Amino acid sequence: MSAAATMTWHEELATLVSDTGVPLPGAEGAAPAPAANVAAVGAVWLGEEEERRTEEGWAQQARGFAESTAEMLLELGRGLWDVAGQCLAGAEDSELGRSLRRRVAATGKRLSFMNEYLPEERDPVRCWLVVAAVAFVTLLVLGVGSGDETPIEGPKKLYISPPSANRIQLPDGRHLAYEEQGVSADRARFSLIAPHSFLSSRLAGIPGISGSLLEEFGARLVTYDLPGFGESDPHPGRNLNSSALDMLHLADALGIPDKFWVVGYSGGGIHAWSALRYIPDRVAGAAMFAPMANPYDSKMTKEERRKTWDSWSTKRKLMHILARRFPSLLPLIYYRSFLSGKQGEPESWLSLSLGKKDKTLLEGPKFKAFWEKNVAESVRQGDAQPFVEEAVLQVSDWGFSLSDIQMQKKEDRGFFEFIKSLFNQVEQEWVGFLGPIHIWQGMDDRVVSPSVTEFVRRVVPGATVHKLLDEGHFSYFCFCDECHRQIFSTLFGIPQGPINPVSESSEVASELTEETTVADNVTEQEQGNSSLA
After folding, report:
1. What confidence tier does 402 reach under pLDDT thresholds 50, 70, 90?
2. Cα distance between residue 183 and residue 518, in whole Å
3. Are 342 and 372 in contact (CB under 8 A)?
4. How far apart are CA 63 and CA 21, in angstroms?
5. What is the DSSP string of 288-350?
6. How far apart, in whole angstroms, are the C-alpha atoms of residue 1 and residue 215?
């Protein structure tokens, strides 16, 4: 037998661990190890093992958990795929199966561009099912929360006050709710009518306007709820022509016999433009504040349209596209935001991007109180249709272009008159609305871009533009006493106060008395002359 065959198991084990320098007890040629040495070796080995386990740490455990979760989700996806395949095995030749297969094929063709992000050897259908499953579980985990049980206060509910508006009945039977500020009808030197903007009501008017300022200028401010807003009856199928007629009927019902001024702010500007277009003979002038223009106006150049779109947030662009192409989807968004019955912020609900001054104003207590009350009144009826109609009006065909408000009169001239006009510069005659149009535009306005006002100035040459440096969309028009005084001074000049009907009637009576006395004296003189003759 060889020497290797005669080795005991102690000797073989000793040869394997000879490099460690630890002698094995019972091996030939090895002295028995003391108990203390054996204990020391065991302690060293246990310490190294504990240190190794400590170094493994939380990161490796988390990685292992993530890998296990991914494997489970992968198996879950495969199982769902197999179950779905078994369930649909006999339905491929049915009419429903063929219809679904065609729709799935068409949808897959539209979304085929997403397969470019997958490896070539992967099945797109199975991969995207797994991705969808992982995304669902991720959202579910995020929805559960991170374990922080600190209660978060939810948004407050909107408080809608009992109905209290004055209303008139229009010729078609609808009722229109309105609000009055300033002096009474018989004392008004100037009358103003202000249609409100989107997600607003008759309570807006000119936010923060003081009664003393209206009294000082003898002004009467009338605001009203658009159809379906506040306490006004809905008007299905309304357009900007009917909007101008509503304004006309309101002026007649409230005893405004002469011309009135129209105030258009932001989205309310489209109704002010309609008044200038359809009832120009009843409008004395227009005061516009960052007025909205149709981004699809045929007279708007590509560069002007690009500047308008670039100033909007992505969400606002999406809302305008939905209003123009898919308006039936808007109620789904509205019922989750301002029609949810809860309070919210204007930046979120209106998809706005704001400048520094606007943010400061909107965070103040005055604006917050005004916003909550105004929005609650706006959504009083809880119906999304009026808001959809208003959004569609903003981006659809208005029935006119802004260039139609003021345009040169076209005359049919013969050949000789045309040749004569080439040599003689004849002043062109303008038609349409010829009264004053004042436009105030904040240069830091990120809701209605200053480029919109530049477009308006180009197509409405008679408009006077007041550029406001460092002002935003809200900061100049809302809750600014000095700004309101500047506006009224620009429109009406030196304040003359309201009309005093008592003094005027007495002056008229005295003038009539003087005329009667003069006539009597003349008659007496004529009678005396005839008697002498």
Report:
1. very high
2. 38
3. no
4. 38
5. EES----TT-TT--HHHHHHHHHTS-HHHHHHHHHHHH-GGGHHHHHTTTTTSSB---HHHHT
6. 129
Amino acid at 70: A
Q: Which two tokens stand for residue 211?
A: 């009664």
pLDDT single digits (tens) 83-94 = 666 666 665 566
pLDDT in tens, 340-356: 988 888 888 877 888 89
**274 near 404, Cβ under 8 Å?**
no
Global confidence as pTM: 0.66
Residue with tokens 């349409």: 432
CA angle 339-342-345, nearest 5°?
Answer: 90
pLDDT tens track for 135-146: 676 666 555 544
Q: Which amino acid is at 214?
A: L
Element (H, E) at 194: strand 190-195
* Cross-strand pairs, 195: 224
**3-state class (DSSP) for residue 237:** coil
List alpha helices for 438-500, DSSP H: 450-459, 481-492
Q: At a CB cut-off of 8 Å and minimum separation 6, what does 125 contact?
A: 108
Q: Which SS3 state, helix, strand or coil, does residue 198 take?
A: coil
Residue 210: is its pLDDT beyond 50? yes
Cross-strand partners of 261 = 192, 285
